[in-house]
Design goal:
8% of the residues lie in helices and 41% in strands. It is mostly beta strands and 392 residues long. The protein folds into 2 domains: 39-216, no CATH class; 244-392, no CATH class. The N and C termini lie far apart (75 Å).
Length: 392
């Protein structure tokens, strides 16, 4: 009898434990009303968590919106192919989250789904957060994102829009006009609680990466062959960044970095003032794009932006650092400076400057030369780009 009783008690304990585990699993795996169709991947994820399947190819046929309170998780090896032109893009609204869980040997790839891929085949990735922007001085304004019409900006500096690791974005972007353009990835008021590490944007029809205000930090960004700027920021972006590698393709793009504070308020606050450590920018040559562009600048700083740069390698540009406007120039030596800068012989001018009135300005004090490996390997692709990037 004692033996039978003990057996019954043991079975009861196991059953209780099993039920407890099942309840926990259900609680930790939120459901969503969104129905995934891998061949027609579009719509609004309005609630819960959607988890894609590793190794599956999803055909992005229209806008995929991740709404407030919802999330999308993309495992390593997943491929998303845009086949709907610029109407096909992924947008994360304020309060939504995206989790890209690629790995060094198995990145997530968002690319063209056409047989002959080309820049602008799909819209790209747009993320909207609640961190400060400076369209109204003081940083408490919100605005409507230029390509998704979603609200962005606010007062939550540490806002969290998710985690992005080991992602490649290819053949995205489009420039409709000066005020409306898709980039490979657009960060609109994205906060510092968001993780962005090891991301490549290549062969886009506009900028590789653009930051519209916000406080997001980045590590391991790679921009290659985009048709406008490799990197761009405006509207008061402040972020701490390390390991950026950018390379133009011949005849594609004229600037490594194009940076503003805000085009309609050069002194608006918060002032754009990111820190970038370990930076390599490779141009197509000082005269390669002379017929297409008036300027060929590695780093264009204007309209009041500041920036702290350290360990920089520049090659293949007409101008290294091109500074414009009084508000920008006034920050030289304090919140605008570049140290340990290595410039190849094919850079014609280390620095050029122009005041708001259009007269020439001596801005040489902004840059201190020194031996540097830039992003890690001089002008060559750094070791941390191995396995997950392409085209370099």
């Amino acid at each position: 009898m004692k033996t039978t009783f003990r057996k019954l008690m043991a079975l009861a304990i196991v059953a209780a434990a099993f039920v407890g585990c099942s309840d926990d699993d259900n609680n930790n795996t939120p459901s969503s009303s969104f129905v995934v169709d891998a061949n027609n991947f579009q719509g609004t994820i309005a609630d819960g968590e959607v988890q894609l399947n590793a190794g599956t190819t999803y055909k992005l046929t229209g806008r995929l919106l991740i709404a407030d309170g919802a999330s999308l998780t993309i495992p390593a090896g997943t491929r998303i192919e845009g086949i709907g032109g610029t109407a096909a893009y992924i947008a994360v609204a304020q309060g939504g989250k995206i989790f890209v869980n690629g790995t060094e040997n198995n990145p997530v790839v968002m690319t063209s789904g056409l047989a002959t891929p080309a820049a602008g085949n799909w819209g790209g990735l747009v993320i909207c957060g609640k961190a400060p922007i400076n369209r109204v001085t003081g940083g408490q304004s919100t605005a409507s994102a230029e390509v998704s019409e979603l609200t962005y900006g606010g007062t939550v500096a540490n806002d969290n829009s998710g985690v992005i690791r080991y992602l490649r974005v290819e053949y995205a972007g489009a420039a409709y006009n000066q005020l409306k353009e898709f980039n490979g990835i657009s960060f609109f008021g994205v906060g510092s609680g968001t993780v962005v590490e090891y991301v490549q944007s290549m062969h886009g029809a506009d900028d590789g990466f653009e930051f519209f205000g916000g406080t997001v930090n980045t590590k391991g960004l790679v921009a290659f062959g985009n048709e406008d700027d490799l990197f761009d920021w405006t509207e008061g972006w402040n972020g701490t960044n390390t390991d950026w590698y950018g390379k133009v393709a011949f005849g594609k793009g004229n600037r490594g970095i194009e940076a503003d504070n805000y085009e309609d308020g050069f002194a608006n606050t918060p002032v754009s003032n990111p820190t970038i450590t370990n930076l390599t920018l490779i141009g197509a040559g000082s005269t390669a794009d002379a017929t297409a562009y008036a300027e060929n600048d590695a780093i264009k700083l204007r309209r009041g932006t500041r920036g702290i740069f350290a360990n920089v390698v520049l090659s293949g540009w007409k101008n290294g650092f091109a500074l414009e406007h009084d508000e920008t120039i006034a920050a030289i030596g304090t919140t605008l400076k570049a140290t340990n800068v290595s410039v190849a012989s094919d850079v014609t001018n280390l620095t050029v400057g122009k005041t708001t009135a259009g007269t020439s300005a001596n801005v040489a004090a902004a840059v201190t030369e020194g031996a540097s490996q830039g992003a890690g390997n001089g002008i060559a692709a750094p070791s941390w780009t191995a396995n997950w990037t392409t085209g370099l």
